[in-house]
Amino acid sequence: MTTYAANFCPQCGTALVTRAVDGRERQFCPDCERVVWRNPVPCAGVAVVSDEGVLLTERAVDPGRGEWAAPGGHLEFDESLREGAARELHEEVGVRVDPDDVTPLDTFAVEQADGKRIVSVGFAVRREDTEGDPYAGPEVAAVEWLTPESFGESGEVFHPPHGERFEKAWDEFGPE
Ligand SMILES: [Zn+2]
User: In the chain, is it the N or the C terminus that has fewer CB atoms within a 10 Å radius of its CB?
Assistant: First the structure.
């Protein structure tokens, strides 16, 4: 399985050919006699919500450098969605949460500017159920608590479709 269209077999290095399988042209290794599937990458993230806003990050890496998003990223091979979401939250903004304490919020599947397609599962948690003061980790340029009002005034833009994740988290986990 590959994230991008492959030219060579990841197992044996042979140049791939195309072959019609299951109604589509697939990359196929003539030596291994198997399809090299191209698939989306699973991702997970957490929106932390306090009465002051939703914890958002300004991305410091492409795709979407300078755009804002809820913390999240690729799952490691052996992680559950909850574990991956909690790990990404800690890596990106230094906030810890017990994976059992996050609540499923949303899902999306999008093609990114670099041609990779991701499937993202979003969770949400109240600030009281987390630990640690947020700071901008290595992949993050800035971190802030933002409401729809304050984000609108900032003139910043979301890394799509994180605007919807943000709105849903605020609606369902923000103050009454
Ligand atoms: Zn091969």
Answer: C
